[in-house]
Amino acid sequence: MFERLEKKLAALGAAGWELSEETVTGWEFYFIRHALDQNRAVETRNYTVKLYADVEGGFLGSASGQISPTASEEEIDKALADILFQAGLVKNPAYTLTDAPVPQEEGEEVCVEKIAEDFLRAMDSVHETDTEDVNSYEIFVKSVTRRFKNSNGVSYTRRFPSSLMEVVVNARREGHEIELYRLYPSGTCDADRLRSDVEDVMRVGKDRLHAVPTPVLKDIPVLFPNENAIEIYDYFRDHMSAGAKVRRVSTWESGKPIAEDMTGDVITMKAVAKLPNSSHSYDVDEEGSEIRDRYLIKDGVAQNFWGSRQMSQYLGLEGSSLVYNVVVDGGKQSAADLRTGDYLEVIEFSDFQVDSMAGDIAGEIRLAYWHHDGECTPVTGGSVSGSMMDAMRTMRFSSETVQYDTHVIPRETVLYGLRITGVE
Amino acid sequence: MKAPFSSYLQDLAPVMKQIVARLSESYDYVSVLSTDSVGFQVSMSQRSKNVSRSNMTTERGNVVRVCKNGQYSEYAFNEVDPSDPEKTLARLQAALSAQQALLGRTGTRGYETGLLADEPLELFVEKETQELPEKTDMAALVAELSALSDRGMKEIPGALDCPVRGVSTHISKMFITKNRFLRQSYVYTEGSVAAFAPSPQGELKFVYQGVSGLGGPEILKGLADKLSELPKTMEEMLGSEHIVPGEYEIITDPAVTGLIAHEAFGHGVEMDMFVKGRALGAEYIDKRVGSDLVTMHEGALCADSVTAFAFDDEGTPAGDVIEIDHGILRTGICDALAALRLGVKPTGNGKRENYAHKVYTRMTNTVVDSGENTVEEMIESVKDGYLLRGMESGMEDPKHWGIQCIIARGYEIKDGKLTGKVVSPVVMTGYVPDLLGGITMASTDRGVEGNGACGKGHKEWVKVADGGPYLKTKARLG
User: Fold this and answer.
1) Distance, CA of B61 to CA of B76 (rounded, Å)
2) Residue at which a domain ends, from A190, A206, A222
3) Quick one: pLDDT band at residue B96, thresholds 50, 70, 90?
4) pTM of the full predicted structure?
5) pLDDT at A424
6) Which residue, of A159, A176, A206, is where some domain finishes?
7) B414-432, pLDDT tens digit by residue?
8) How close does chain A come to B48, measured CA to CA in Å?
9) What is the CATH number of domain B7-107+121-238?
10) Which of A29, A63, A421 sits opposite B478 (nearest CB)?
11) By the 8 A CB rule, do B304 and B450 touch?
12) Is the pLDDT confidence value at B400 over 90?
């Protein structure tokens, strides 16, 4: 089908085209406690076509669509004609498709059976007690093969694993039961890390049973000790996207500090193509551009914007691509040094969000540790809110770093000046 | 006109019936869901314009569900050779056998479940629409949405950009078992106009309005009126302040009411969570969870919205369930497998993100009934509080009945009058029974909206709609 589509695309007379095929073999297992609720196998193949058209006035139009592998000849021809017509309706300033050759390493074969077995055995070996245990979990393992070609002859095939594990744990005391939720995306199964994380979650679950309502707290730092902090760092990553810059949402400029009067730790963030066990560890993006390791921000100074071919060219960027993995350098102080004085350490939010454009910070507290006067009190309820525009000037982060799927970030991050709504 | 059922699925039906018959020789239960949904997504802004024939709900594929000895398994695929169903059967059996071998090797035990009911039922539903997305005049639509974006830039103060979006899908689904043959076709459409602008303090402010409903791209005509509301809203947002955290009297607009209904007792009574012991609602059936003013419906039949299907993804006919009746929790909503495990009837709420995803209990239309007050009366009754407008996001907590809603803006009310002060954004949190128990007034009107998507936890995105009247209660705002 790929070759058939390629021939049709070449014959259309479009200003350009991109064709991709994604083949997925997925195994899924759903558990209630440790009993199998359902097993599923997924075998799909999808084709995506993007066509470009020269539009009067020097514009370049584009339109896209998926083509089903069961589409008839007539359906394919109609779909391609429609897409080409629609491309001609779109007036975007002109840009070019990539023409730079990319490495031709396809990647190793992915054995979903082996990865699934690792997940099943890892979850079976999690240490549970009478009062802390696993409520339910879902295992998703995929082998993905992506094949790509464009009208400039750039082509590649990449094969990679992509996994996801959802775990819900319970802790109970005297008839009262609570739950904690975790979602672990990864490449394959890191059994030791998974087991240890789930057991840690059970430990903090126990503390939630003892939690008291969050008091009204003013002028107290908030410490983020886990994957919730990804949201904070994505604010920086997204502000360095060419799309944000073109849309004038980001006012950051290459070669200039991202903010004035920064009194906290200054951020250094690097985009990397490959990151061990990331679910997106590959060196070519969806548009055929090679992903090169490069600084997005160095010592608090904006370096390289990143983005799609279209947005990158609007900014005049060379060698840019989409970014999937980022590595943030650690800060000046150790985690232990950061954990001094009074502070609120939030372990579990309902849904922690940092608006990557506006910078608004918001999250309801499900479990936090209120460190005060040398004591540590588990608290629950209330919310944290604020703005990254202010918080980024004074934020601090630990010298130690940790990886969460596509992100390597400081193990501890501290934001100052957030508003904390108590329950009392 | 009627939205015509997919001719592709019509042709595929005999093949799928053959597959069901063959699998029924070796499995205790077999069903197939086949989908063929076409549509478009158009996004027009000042910086970038995109047109696609695909969107979140366009799909073509199949999923087979089988049960053997109380164990349910599924095989999802999108390549099928109608002339050789045996090839599909061989692939299915190879995949599921390999999984069974692994489960045997790891000593995995099953969660034994009875057999799904398979009473005879035939259904062929083609719902009304004025237009079809696949026959839309795209040149006219692109021009129209592009012109709206241009108009927004002129009218909305300080706008950096004005993205306008239109999405429409013509859904066709077919469900087959030994005794059931169900087919449906309907069209839903949604669209939005938005703008963002920097405040004098340099903060980026965002405003948004949407249209949605059961029907074709003609629904997008409503965007022009919605755009007219944005200049004033942006002015208010640009002058907005941060709220002083605390507990306040609040009045929620229909969008915020819908968000509360969705997060509080939408997710809270999804009964697949009852099976796992993950929802406190299971212990509150026939108990009070809200004030007398709270009556809440759930079901695809409740409103002509983006999720007004005739049958769900497990072949259960659409329903209309009264979840909360004058403050008393009566029942939850249920997919077929969860219903079987709980010994109750399914409610038509078994939904998949698409054919390749598992079924979960999911919401359709979650709607609070109207009351007897005017909005003016409600505002006059507030001593110190906020009128909350516009939803941004929410998160459920069925186990503990906490609630998190991020709301676009709040209008201050002092001594029964709007003061003109606006706060944004607003994080509303609280304990669900307190929030619903505190409802003292509800307006006579109501609205239902279906823009965006709903996840289960942090994945499995499906279309839902929710809404209700203006409500008055108390909540913590931050």
Assistant:
1) 8
2) A206
3) very high
4) 0.95
5) 64
6) A206
7) 999 999 999 998 989 888 8
8) 6
9) 3.30.2290.10
10) A421
11) no
12) no
